[in-house]
Amino acid sequence: MDRIRLKVLGLSYSMSQAGAYALILADEQDMHRIPIVIGMPEAQSIAIQLEKMQTQRPLTHDLIKKLADALQVTLKEAFIYRLDSGIFYSELLFEKDTQQIKIDSRTSDAIALALRYDCPIYSTPEIVEKAGIAVGQETGQTESPEKEEVVQQPYSVQELTRMLDEAVRNEEYEKASKIRDLLKEMGK
């Protein structure tokens, strides 16, 4: 089975679901962005790991890693293997000695643990194509004035993030890629 390695680009508040966040993954060539809606606790856990912050007490994902480390079990990879009705399915590949153990996982938990283990995150080309937003591809289509306004008007990072969530939710991928480019230029 062909697989594509992914990386975590960041998190943003999801306007589509109250109390939810969008975890943004990308392929290594930066050709696709994959937004995944996750809950607040998982977003917090991922954000803390991305920012290398220390907490006074271990979070659930820290506790899982400490337990696995104590049992000499290592996480080798996280694999997003299925997308069905907007739900991503993942599995974790652990290793103890020479034995490999696959465990089904929510994608948000798989990513949170992969970040703690600094191990690779993979998916299939089909999932990347189906769920991903193509970035930097010329379509030759004329942009509408509304879309041109998106890239010409100065917006705050927060406003652009909201606009990106809305564009993804409305499946306006060209608009989403332009907003993403603006955020990247702003260094956010």
Verbal overview:
With 188 residues, this protein is α+β, with helices and mostly antiparallel strands. The chain has 2 domains: 2-132, Bifunctional nuclease domain; 155-184. It contains 7 helices and 8 strands; from the N terminus they run βββααβββαβαβααα. An 8-stranded mixed β-sheet has the order 6-5-4-7-1-2-3-8, with helices on both faces. Helix 1 runs parallel beside helix 3, helix 2 (60-70) crosses helix 3 and helix 6 packs antiparallel against helix 7.
What are its keywords?
32% strand, 2 domains, BFN_sf, single chain, UVR_dom, alpha+beta, Bi_nuclease_dom, BFN domain-containing protein, 8-stranded mixed beta sheet, 7 helices
Task: Give a nutshell description of this structure.
This protein is α+β, with helices and mostly antiparallel strands. It has helices spanning about 40-50, 60-70, 105-115, 125-130, 145-150, 155-170, 175-185; strands at about 5-15, 20-25, 30-40, 75-85, 85-95, 100-105, 120-125, 135. Strand 1 (about 5-15) and strand 2 (about 20-25) form a beta hairpin.
H/I helix tally: 7
Please give the largest β-sheet. Answer: 8 strands, mixed
- Class computed from helices, strands and strand pairing: alpha+beta
| Rough outline | globular
CATH T-level topology of the largest domain = Bifunctional nuclease domain
Write down the CATH class of the largest domain: Alpha Beta
